[in-house]
Amino acid sequence: MAAHRINLLLALAGWAVVAILLFPRLLPDPPSPVPVAGTIFFQGQPLRAGTIVLTSDPDRDDRELSAHAQLRPDGTFELHREQGPGVLPGWYRVTIFGVDGSGRGTPERYRDPARSGLLCQIAPGGPITLDFHLRP
Asked: 42, 71 in Cβ contact below 8 A?
């Protein structure tokens, strides 16, 4: 009787090890970050300073994703996550806090992801170029 229980426990343990080793291989690989860069213009001129932030669009994506970048003096940027460079594929709302060459800030609506009206989809692959042309 005891030998039967031991054999049963060993068999269950063996199947548990097989399941642990095989289960991760059955799951799809997580998406790879995509290189994303671009330029932001306000009234036809590149923004001289500021920040761009992408946050997942709750209407299209239930994950909580984000990426951000500082604008260079020529208005260009390269997005990155807290974990490293690139952006995970998904739908994003875009928020832009910027200053143009004359020191004027971007209109307030661009500073609110729900009001900016700026959306983007980051598809797998890449690299991706995102250019934004903001109006007053």
From this structure: no
For residue 111 the two structure tokens come to 């500073």
Rounded CA separation 136/123 (Å): 29
Give the number of other CB atoms < 10 A from CB of residue 80: 17
Query: Would you say 51 and 70 are in contact if contact means Cβ atoms under 8 Å apart?
Result: yes
For residue 85, say if its preceding peptide bond is cis, omega within 30 degrees of 0.
no
Tell me the whole-structure pTM to 2 decimals.
Answer: 0.78
Is the Cβ–Cβ distance between 51 and 68 less than 8 Å?
Answer: yes
- Which residues of the chain are modeled with pLDDT < 70? 1-4, 7-14, 16-19, 21-27
Would you state the pLDDT for residue 27?
A: 67
Q: Which domains, ranges and CATH numbers included, belong to the chain?
A: 36-134 (2.60.40.10)
Q: Is the distance from CB of 99 to CB of 50 less than 8 angstroms? A: yes
